[in-house]
Amino acid sequence: MKDMNKTKDRLVEEITDLRLKIKDYESAASNRPANIHEMKQGESLYRLLVEQANEAVMVIQNEKIRYVNNKAAEITGYSKKELSTRSFIDFIHPDDRKLISIDDFLTKRGQIKPQHLTCRIIDRTGVTRWVDAKLMPAKLAAQKAVMCFLIDMTERKNDEEALRNSEMRYKQLVNRAHAGIYEIDLTTGNFIYFNDAICETLGYSREEFQNLRMWDVLTEASRQKQLVRVEKMLKGEPVPAEAETEIIDKNGNKISLLVYTNIEYKDDLPVRANTVAHDITERKRLEEELSKAQKLESLGVLAGGIGHDFNNLLSGIMGNISLAKLEAERGEDIMESLDEALRVSSKASALTRQLLVFSKGGAPVKKAASIAEVLRDSTAFTLRGSKVKCKFKIAEELWPVKVDVGQFSQVIQNLVINAMQAMSGGGEMRLKAKNVHLHKIFDLPLTPGRYVVIKFQDQGNGIAREYLTKIFDPYFTTKSKGSGLGLTMSYMIIKRHDGHMTVESEVGQGATFKIYLPATAEVPEEAGTKESRPARGDGKILVMDDEASLRKVAERMLLKLGYEVQCVHDGAEAIKSYEQAQQRGQSFDAVIMDLTIPGGMGGQKTIEKLLKIDSKAVAVVSSGYSNDPIMSNYKKYGFRGVVTKPYRIEELSWVMRDVLKGAKR
User: Fold this and answer.
1) How far is it, in rounded angstroms, from Cα 102 to Cα 146?
2) 3-state SS string over 561-591?
3) Omega of the bond leading into 629 within 30 degrees of 0 (cis)
4) 242-248 and 254-266 as β-strands: parallel, antiparallel, unpaired?
5) % residues pLDDT > 70 (the chain)
6) Mean pLDDT within 379-408
C-alpha cells in the first residue's frame, strides 16, 4: 500500500513538472522571432564553426565541463562523453594549477578581465602538453560559467626548448674554446659578442672587455692595416679571410693573433665581422728563435768564407810588397809589384765593404741619380770580352732614384756576372727598366707608391725550386766558380736603399731577378767628369784620427797634393788646435774628422762644438765603415763632404778640392 502511494506521488510530481515545462515552452514560443528557420540556420553555423575550430573550446560550470568541441577531445585524448564527467582542474599540471583562477569568474562580483596564460595539461596517456589558454567569463542557463579556449603549443615549446639547448651548447662550446671568438659591429667598432678565451688572452674581465672597442686593442701598425682592409671592402674589393694582426693586452704587451674573419654585408656595405682568433705569440717567438739560429749558421759559413778570401788577398798584398822591397834593393823597377799590391788591396777593400752590408751599418751614401746610364755602362763594362750579349729595353725618362751609385753599380755587376756564369757557353741576357706606380702591394714588403723596376733575365739552366729560398744566403752557390756572396750583398744593398729584390726561376728556363727601387722627386745632380789623376790644391788642413798610421798616410797624401797639414788624435785636441790657429790668425781651411774615436770625442760631437766656434768651418767626415746615418746624410750634421777609408789619393784630392771650392763661393 505504501509502495503504491509512493508511486502515485511520484507520478503527480512528474505530471506537475511536465505542465510547468509546457507552460515555459509556450511562453518562450510566443517570444520567438517570426523567422525561426533563420535562427536555426545561425545556430547550426555557429555550432559547425565551434566544432571545426583549431582551438579547443570548453564551457566550465560548477567545476564541471559542460561542453567541449572536437579539438578539446583531440588535445586531451578523452572522448566528449568522458570529458563531460570530469573537472577541468584535473587536467591541469599540478605545478600550474595555482595559475588558474576559475573561482574569480564564479564568485567575484563585477567585471572580471579575461585570463591569458601558458600552462601545462596532462592528457589521457599521462603525457604533459603545453597549451596557450584563454579564460573568459560567460553565462550558461542564466548562471555564471567560464569559457576556455586552448591552443596546443607542445610542438612549438619542444622546438623552443631544443633551440635553447642548442644555443646553450653552442655558448658552452664557444666559451670553452681555446681560440678567441668575437663579433664586431664595423660601423662603430664595438664588440657585439666575445667569448672567455679572448678576455683571458687580453687579461680583461668580461665587464672590462664589454666597454672596449676594436680600435682600443689594436697596435698602430695593425690599426692601419685594418683601415686598409675596411677601405678595400667599401670599394667592393676582395680581402683575404686569414690575416695576422697584433693587439695590446691589459698590461701593455703585444699579442700576435692569426685571425679568420667572415664579413656580413647589408646593402653592399660591411656591417659585421665574425672572427676566430688564435694566439700565435709563442709560435712567432719560436720562429724568431729559429730564424736567429739559421742566421748564426749562415754567419758561421760567412766567417769561414771571408777568412779564406782575406787570407788569399793578404797573401797577394804581402807577396807583392816583399817583391817590391827585393826589387828596390837590386835597383830594379818596382812599379809592377806595387801596382799589383794596390790592385789586390782594392779587392780587399771591396770585400770589406761587402762585409759592412751584412752589419747593422753599411748605410749607403745616397744621392738622387738617373740610373739609365749606370745600367748600360756597368753592364757593358762587366760583359766586356765575354760571350754574353745584353739586350736593353730601358724606358725613356726613367724616374730618378736615390742611390749610392758605387753600391748600385756593384749590384748591377753582380747580377751580370751571375748571368754570365749561368750562360757559360754564351747567349743573350735581357735588361729591362720601367716606371711603375704600385697601387696594391700583395707579396712585396713595400709601401704603395712610385717605383723603378729593373729586370735581369738570363737564358741559363735555371734554379731548382728547393734552392730558390737559399739563393740570397751568404756563400750559397750551385756554381763551380764564385763564392756566392755577390747575390747576398746585392740583396742587402737593395734593402738598404728601401727597395726589394726577387728571383723567379724554373729548371731549364733561366732565371729572372727583379729590383724595385723607390723613385724620388729630387732632381739628380749633373754628373761631372773627374780625371783619374789626383787634383792638386792649396790651403791648411787639420786631420783628426785616432790611428797613427792613418794620420801619417793622410798627412803624406795631403802634403804631396800641395796642402799644409797638422794632425791630432781626437776631437778635444782638434777643437784646441782650431781655436789656437784662429787666435794666431792662421785658421784652418778645412778639417778632416774621423767619425769614431774609441774612448774620445768623435766626429759628430766635434762638428757640433766646431760650428759653435766658427759657423763657417769646413769639415769632411771620414770613416772606414758606414754604421751611422751621418755618412749618408752628412750635410744634415754640418759637414761639407765625406771620404771613406782606406784613402785613395785620387778620391781624397777631389773631395778636398770640391769642398774648398764650394766654401769660397
Assistant:
1) 7
2) HCCEEEEECCHHHHHHHHHHHHHCCCCCCEE
3) no
4) antiparallel
5) 78
6) 87
Instruction: Please report how the helices 485-496 and 335-358 are oriented relative to each other, as an axis angle in degrees rounded to 10.
Output: 60
What are 145-168's pLDDT values in tens digits?
888 888 888 888 888 887 887 777
Cβ proximity of 130 and 154 under 8 Å: yes
Fold designation for 540-663: Rossmann fold (3.40.50)
Cα 376 to Cα 365, 389, 535, distances in angstroms: 22, 12, 28
- Cα–Cα distance for residue pair 196/201, rounded to 1 Å: 9
Residue 363 C-alpha cell reads as: 748605410
Q: Measuring CA to CA, which residue among 507, 391, 509 is closest to residue 459? A: 509
Cβ burial 390-419 (10 Å sphere, 16+ → b, else e): beeebeeebbbbbbbbebbbbbbbbbbbbb
- Determine the distance from the C-alpha atom of residue 521 to the mean position of all C-alpha atoms in its chain, rounded to a whole number: 29
- CATH architecture designation of domain 177-279: 2-Layer Sandwich (3.30)
User: Of the candidates 431, 404, 399, 397, which has an alpha carbon nearest to the alpha carbon of residue 415?
Assistant: 431
Q: What angle do CA 259, 262, 263 make, to 5 degrees?
A: 125
* Beta carbons within 8 Å of 299's beta carbon, 6+ residues apart: 474
Q: One-letter amino acid identity for 418?
A: N
For the chain, how many residues are written?
A: 665
Residues 38-58, buried b or exposed e (16+ Cβ, 10 A)?
A: eeeeeeeeeeeeeeeeebbbb
Hey, do 177-279 and 367-518 end up sharing a CATH topology, with the first three levels equal?
Answer: no
Cell reading at 557: 797624401
> 631, 664, 415, 649: which is closest to 515 by C-alpha?
415
Under CATH, which architecture does the 50-154 domain have? Answer: 2-Layer Sandwich (3.30)
pTM: 0.42
Strand partners, 92: 121
E strand intervals along 328-478: 367-369, 388-394, 401-403, 427-438, 449-457
Instruction: Count other C-beta atoms under 10 Å from residue 505's C-beta.
Output: 21
Question: How many C-beta atoms surround the C-beta of residue 428 within 10 A?
Answer: 13
DSSP tag of 360: S
Q: How confident is the model at residue 105 (pLDDT cuts 50, 70, 90)?
A: low
pLDDT, tens digit (0-9, with 9 covering 90-100), for 321-359: 888 888 888 888 888 888 888 888 877 776 666 565 455
Q: How far is CA 369 from the centre of its chain?
A: 34
The DSSP code sequence of 4-27 is HHHHHHHHHHHHHHHHHHHHHHHH
Cα(342)–Cα(348) distance, integer angstroms: 10
- Write down the domain spans for the chain: 50-154, 177-279, 287-358, 367-518, 540-663
List the strands of the sheet with 190-194, edge to edge: 190-194, 180-185, 269-279, 254-266, 242-248
Instruction: Domain 367-518: give its CATH superfamily.
Output: Histidine kinase-like ATPase, C-terminal domain (3.30.565.10)
Cα distances from 221 to residues 190, 224, 227, 264, in angstroms, run 20, 5, 10, 24
Using DSSP, state whether 54 is helix, strand or coil.
coil
Report the DSSP pairing between strands 388-394 and 180-185. Answer: unpaired
Residue 611 CB neighbours (<10 A): 14
Q: Which helix (H) or strand (E) holds 148?
A: strand 143-152
Is residue 598 reached through a cis peptide bond, with omega within 30 degrees of 0 on the bond before it? no
Q: DSSP secondary structure string, 453-514? A: EEEEE--S----GGGGGGTTSTT--SSSSS-SHHHHHHHHHHHHTT-EEEEEE-TTS-EEEE
